[in-house]
Amino acid sequence: MGAMSVRTQSSEPSGEASHRAGFACFVGRPNAGKSTLTNALVGKKVAITADQPQTTRHTVRGIVHRPDAQLILVDTPGLHKPRTLLGQRLNDVVRTTWAEVDVIGFCLPANEKLGPGDRFIAKELASIKKTPKVAIVTKTDLVDSKQLAEQLIAIDQLGKELGFEWAEIVPVSAVGDKQVGLLADLLVPLLPEGPALYPEGDLTDEPEQVMVAELIREAALEGVRDELPHSIAVVVEEMLPREDRPADRPLLDIHAFVYIERPSQKGIIIGPKGKRLKDVGIKSRKQIEALLGTPVFLDLHVKVAKDWQRDPRQLRKLGF
Ligand SMILES: Nc1nc2c(ncn2[C@@H]2O[C@H](COP(=O)(O)OP(=O)(O)OP(=O)(O)O)[C@@H](O)[C@H]2O)c(=O)[nH]1
Ligand SMILES: [Mg+2]
């Protein structure tokens, strides 16, 4: 650095500014708040969320750009006891991911006592010696300070029982926007030094077609109960600009299939007189238009892919 160099941002360290870049994955039980936290850190929806477990079905990368670092978050599916081939595949994805990242963020909801599921995950994490592990207590807006303190102690204890130290234990609320920035501040020093890995401005590396399918699935998940959420898969078949439109009034045609597992589920998804499917279309179309910045014509069809969660051929067709 020359003596005459002028810095406009006082927060940058002087001298040889070290830049860090790397990957942090969020793992935890289904519904722990991993995807909501990923979105809060990125500042934009890159992963869909739902109030049902097992929403995320593939790793989603969200990129946080800072002057001192590029923090790439890898949101993973909730780790659970698998009951289907899909469940096994998802768990495999999580284990591959945590073996490859620079930091592991283990998400534990503040409002639920540590359970066998958490211990199971923590035990597996304990065997990954080389990677720093940060315990993230999520959803702190749902508990009082006493309950939070108890949870922090229990998590600290869990690490000790399993013979490792957490690099940090951080309480956050993604919904209440509490300590989300602090979490980023604590993750960055755990990344290796190096230049940015993604172009400035990229918030995710998800293909548009996949994001569109996910937005449709998110809308379809809302309000359905029991087994149905797990039975829904969405595939975008085609996205094409409508021909013969004036340049100032473009329209993007999107054709998508909503897959379910059994013919009996069709009625639930479509609803009386097709009302439910129509609502799903309206809701997701608005989000897709916001994402792509263009008016959209969304054509949704419901199809049965028999027992796709258990069928290797169907899973392959649906991209798992
Ligand atoms: N009150 C509150 N709710 C939250 C917070 N973070 C997440 N949630 C809610 O918890 C539910 C699950 O959130 P997700 O982010 O989808 O959870 P996940 O861990 O990604 O779940 P899977 O993808 O199924 O593993 C949603 O209804 C969220 O709105 C939070 O900070 N406060
Ligand atoms: Mg998720």
TrEMBL record:
<dbReference type="InterPro" id="IPR005662">
    <property type="entry name" value="GTPase_Era-like"/>
</dbReference>
<keyword id="KW-0694">RNA-binding</keyword>
<protein>
    <recommendedName>
        <fullName>GTPase Era</fullName>
    </recommendedName>
</protein>
<dbReference type="GO" id="GO:0005886">
    <property type="term" value="C:plasma membrane"/>
</dbReference>
<feature type="region of interest" description="G2">
    <location>
        <begin position="54"/>
        <end position="58"/>
    </location>
</feature>
<feature type="binding site">
    <location>
        <begin position="28"/>
        <end position="35"/>
    </location>
    <ligand>
        <name>GTP</name>
    </ligand>
</feature>
<keyword id="KW-0963">Cytoplasm</keyword>
<feature type="binding site">
    <location>
        <begin position="138"/>
        <end position="141"/>
    </location>
    <ligand>
        <name>GTP</name>
    </ligand>
</feature>
<dbReference type="InterPro" id="IPR015946">
    <property type="entry name" value="KH_dom-like_a/b"/>
</dbReference>
<feature type="domain" description="Era-type G">
    <location>
        <begin position="20"/>
        <end position="193"/>
    </location>
</feature>
<feature type="region of interest" description="G5">
    <location>
        <begin position="172"/>
        <end position="174"/>
    </location>
</feature>
<feature type="region of interest" description="G1">
    <location>
        <begin position="28"/>
        <end position="35"/>
    </location>
</feature>
<comment type="similarity">
    <text>Belongs to the TRAFAC class TrmE-Era-EngA-EngB-Septin-like GTPase superfamily. Era GTPase family.</text>
</comment>
<dbReference type="InterPro" id="IPR030388">
    <property type="entry name" value="G_ERA_dom"/>
</dbReference>
<keyword id="KW-0547">Nucleotide-binding</keyword>
<dbReference type="InterPro" id="IPR004044">
    <property type="entry name" value="KH_dom_type_2"/>
</dbReference>
<dbReference type="GO" id="GO:0003924">
    <property type="term" value="F:GTPase activity"/>
</dbReference>
<dbReference type="InterPro" id="IPR005225">
    <property type="entry name" value="Small_GTP-bd"/>
</dbReference>
<comment type="subunit">
    <text>Monomer.</text>
</comment>
<feature type="region of interest" description="G3">
    <location>
        <begin position="75"/>
        <end position="78"/>
    </location>
</feature>
<dbReference type="InterPro" id="IPR009019">
    <property type="entry name" value="KH_sf_prok-type"/>
</dbReference>
<keyword id="KW-1003">Cell membrane</keyword>
<dbReference type="GO" id="GO:0000028">
    <property type="term" value="P:ribosomal small subunit assembly"/>
</dbReference>
<feature type="region of interest" description="G4">
    <location>
        <begin position="138"/>
        <end position="141"/>
    </location>
</feature>
<dbReference type="GO" id="GO:0070181">
    <property type="term" value="F:small ribosomal subunit rRNA binding"/>
</dbReference>
<keyword id="KW-0472">Membrane</keyword>
<feature type="domain" description="KH type-2">
    <location>
        <begin position="224"/>
        <end position="306"/>
    </location>
</feature>
<dbReference type="Pfam" id="PF01926">
    <property type="entry name" value="MMR_HSR1"/>
</dbReference>
<dbReference type="GO" id="GO:0043024">
    <property type="term" value="F:ribosomal small subunit binding"/>
</dbReference>
<feature type="binding site">
    <location>
        <begin position="75"/>
        <end position="79"/>
    </location>
    <ligand>
        <name>GTP</name>
    </ligand>
</feature>
<dbReference type="InterPro" id="IPR027417">
    <property type="entry name" value="P-loop_NTPase"/>
</dbReference>
<dbReference type="GO" id="GO:0005829">
    <property type="term" value="C:cytosol"/>
</dbReference>
<dbReference type="Pfam" id="PF07650">
    <property type="entry name" value="KH_2"/>
</dbReference>
<keyword id="KW-0342">GTP-binding</keyword>
<keyword id="KW-0690">Ribosome biogenesis</keyword>
<dbReference type="GO" id="GO:0005525">
    <property type="term" value="F:GTP binding"/>
</dbReference>
<dbReference type="InterPro" id="IPR006073">
    <property type="entry name" value="GTP-bd"/>
</dbReference>
<comment type="function">
    <text>An essential GTPase that binds both GDP and GTP, with rapid nucleotide exchange. Plays a role in 16S rRNA processing and 30S ribosomal subunit biogenesis and possibly also in cell cycle regulation and energy metabolism.</text>
</comment>
<keyword id="KW-0699">rRNA-binding</keyword>
